[in-house]
Amino acid sequence: MKVLLFLMLALFCYVAMTACQDEKVTGVSQKKKLSFTMTDPGIKPENIKITIMGNASLQEQQTSTYDIVVANTSESAEDEFRIEIRLYGLTYQGISNHSWSLQTTLKPKSQWNASYNLTGASAGSGQIMVNVGFSISEDFLQSKTKDIQITPKPKELIYGLPPEIWNACKYEYNGESMLD
């Protein structure tokens, strides 16, 4: 009896499904067609301009201000952008080789700007890299790099001697340092 009831239910479902596939329900076909329209983004890479202003050379352990400007030159398009800043050989807020990112909306013909006090970590070369992309994407629209030459800090001379020699040869006499 259970088998017969199961077979009748299966036959009923089969007949109902076959009938629905060919019929129109309330005047609309069961087969639906979805279409998608792809639109070009309003902002193109050439609409983003990055400027990094500041000294091209810096003495080690010296601090200088660097200004970063990101501009949207588009006449009509605006979007949400991710601005990523990476430092190499430079220190920002006590952290060497620091990197961070932020998000901002750039309206047509507008710009974002910020100033950062950066310190030359050690003699050699440093670099500021700025990458700009849409906030919802990992790709970058534009990148800009500024190379900075970091010169060694001059050695302090005591009585005309480098500190290494002075410290190795001096002694204290009556509270005053003397050369031996």
Written overview of the protein:
- This protein is an alpha+beta fold.
- The N and C termini lie far apart (117 Å).
- It is built from two helices and twelve strands; from the N terminus they run αββββββββββαββ.
- The protein has helices at 2-22, 163-169; strands spanning 48-53, 57-59, 63-72, 79-88, 90-92, 95-96, 99-106, 110-120, 124-134, 142-151, 170-173, 176-179.
Element order, helices and strands? HEEEEEEEEEEHEE
Overall SS class: alpha+beta
Shape: elongated
Number of helices: 2
- The low-confidence runs, each spanning 5 or more residues with pLDDT under 50, are none
Secondary structure: number of strands = 12
Reported for the largest beta sheet, the result is: 5 strands, antiparallel
Rg, please?
Answer: 34 Å
Residues in β-strands, percent: over 45%
Going across the major beta sheet, what is the strand order? Answer: 1-3-8-5-6
N-to-C span: 117 Å
Helix content: 10-25%
Mean pLDDT value: 83
Please summarize what this structure is.
With 180 residues, the protein is an alpha+beta fold. The chain is built from two helices and twelve strands, in the order αββββββββββαββ.
Which structural traits does this protein have?
180 residues, alpha+beta, five-stranded antiparallel beta sheet, five-stranded mixed beta sheet, 2 helices, elongated
